[in-house]
Specification:
This protein is mostly beta strands and 259 residues long. Helices cover 5% and strands 34% of the residues. The chain has one domain: Jelly Rolls (Sandwich). The chain has two helices and 15 strands. It is globular and about 50 Å long.
């Protein structure tokens, strides 16, 4: 009996840079679940790449949660195109100033997408807008891991209390730098900074969300673009990344979206 090791492929016809339209993001870029996703807070730090921003964590509010973990039936979590899912934080009585650094990551169930094929990343975000102390994102970062250390690329988000819904993409030049790191560096997760000012008016609640995340694959340097298939293993832990006889039952069965 043949064993399904869960390897999935999509046609090598893509060569996306970071600056693509929202329509291309939604309708052309393959939608895959690159990891399940865990959420945690982080201490203040300075990113080593991209805008090299300092992300402060002071008097933090809650780090939120991923709203749906049913990854076997559709594309839930941060990868889902439906704004009803994804990551969300809700906080009450936030009239004072707050700054919170949040990380979404996964070391146990990750595709470990290689930096050498990274064309960029896009996603949607939303805050409640209009509130005098609405929470919004000031920076978004992507992190990569090589087994012993991390590299983080930051980008300023220029958010405000009145943002509402926005579409974010990583800068092209930052994605190009990430590709230069090579295959040993793998996509680890997202980091972002939440902020609300001290414009205190009562104790209104505030909410911030993130969803519709897609990594943009990069194939332009491959010799037979349009003729080959891009092969991705199913999700696994870092320890099992190079294991040859990985149990089939541990693999995702529907990584590729045929639509």
């Amino acid at each position: 009996m043949s064993v399904d090791y869960g390897i999935r492929a999509f046609n090598n016809t893509y060569g996306f840079g970071s600056q693509i339209s929202k329509s291309t993001h939604d309708n052309t870029v393959p939608r895959l679940v690159y990891f399940n996703g865990k959420v945690r807070g982080k201490s203040s730090f300075t990113a080593g790449y991209g805008s090299k921003s300092y992300l402060s964590n002071s008097n933090p509010i809650g780090v939120g949660s991923i709203k749906d973990f049913d990854y076997d039936n559709g594309y839930r979590g941060i990868w889902d195109p439906n704004g009803l899912y994804g990551w969300e934080t809700r906080s009450g009585d936030v009239g004072n100033e707050h700054s919170t650094v949040v990380e979404i990551y996964d070391t146990d169930n990750n595709v470990w997408f290689p930096a050498s094929a990274f064309g960029g990343i896009g996603m949607e975000t939303e805050n409640d807008k209009g509130g005098n102390h609405a929470t919004y994102m000031t920076h978004i970062c992507v992190s990569f891991y090589n087994g012993s250390s991390w590299r983080v690329t930051s980008q300023g988000y220029q958010g405000s209390e009145t943002d509402g819904k926005k579409f974010f993409q990583l800068n092209d030049s930052y994605a190009e730098t990430i590709r230069s790191w090579g295959d040993s560096w793998r996509f680890y997760g997202l980091i972002f900074r939440l902020y609300n000012s001290s414009k205190k008016v009562g104790t209104e609640n505030t909410r911030c969300r993130l969803w519709n995340v897609k990594i943009y694959p990069w194939f332009k340097d491959m010799a037979h673009s349009g003729q080959d298939k891009w092969i991705l293993p199913a999700r696994r832990s870092w320890a099992n990344l190079k294991q040859q006889n990985f149990p089939a039952a541990s693999f995702e069965t529907s990584l590729y979206d045929p639509t």
